[in-house]
């Protein structure tokens, strides 16, 4: 990667206001680097949209981003550039042991990262810690949550998204990251970058449909999983906070490490 890499941010969005906000966010965060923001507004699926974005992108670093998030770290770009000398794919929550069609299915101590959630209409922010065994990045990750994934260009172009199997809006991320892991790429979860997501995920019937496809695709790898090992919840430590100032005060290594230790003592 050259001394001043170019970022390409790929966003699938059908809401003009959300797209304007996420463009402003990344324009500010990436102001010290050459960058472009590619909006896909007519996606057949997220996998199809992201593959289309890859073909249009000119960057060395590709960010696959939902349109409803906010990153609160002024050092975001510098951290990503530095870490992509070591890692090939970065996320903000993930697992070091994938056993089913959710990144949190194996439960603790295999979950890592943290996400702030800002649900529409709710007056408080939720700070969810899944694990920070190492700071600032957890290594040996097998799959990550896809609300924001950051990849080296070479990985994105060789792995691609499986738009045939995942032709909707679920499991595209688990498949992409797990396929990258299985191809020998190095995945990491960043614990030190405060990030807010406006959604907590949707696990309705459409998710189950694509979960079945995921399990069938990776039947050989998941064959030894026992049903009782699978967790249907996102085990983590959470707290409600009044505003982003409180979130930033809480998003510290000592808080994350204490929460991780407490979760794992209870196993």
Report the CATH superfamily.
Spore Coat Polysaccharide Biosynthesis Protein SpsA, Chain A
Overall tally of domains: 1
- The total beta strand count reads 14
Q: Major sheet: order of its strands?
A: 2-1-3-11-5-12-9
Please tally the helical runs, counting DSSP H or I stretches of 4 or more residues: 9
Broad CATH class: Alpha Beta
Q: Over the alpha carbons, how many angstroms does the gyration radius reach?
A: 17 Å
Q: What fraction of the residues are assigned to beta strands by DSSP?
A: 15-25%
Mean pLDDT: 94
Rough outline: globular
Give the low-pLDDT segments: none
Q: How far apart, in Å, are the first and last alpha carbons?
A: 42 Å
Give the fraction of residues assigned to helices: 25-40%
CATH architecture: Alpha-Beta Complex
SSE succession: EHEHEEHEEEEEEEHHEEHHEHH
Descriptive overview:
The chain has helices spanning 16-29, 46-56, 76-83, 153-159, 172-182, 205-217, 219-222, 244-250, 253-265; strands spanning 7-12, 35-40, 61-65, 69-71, 89-91, 93-95, 111-117, 125-131, 137-138, 143-144, 148-152, 187-190, 195-197, 237-241. It is α/β, with parallel strands linked by helices and 267 residues long. The strands form 2 sheets. It has a 7-stranded mixed beta sheet with strand order 2-1-3-11-5-12-9, sandwiched between helices. α1 (16-29) links the parallel β1 and β2. The protein is globular and about 45 Å long. The mean pLDDT is 94.
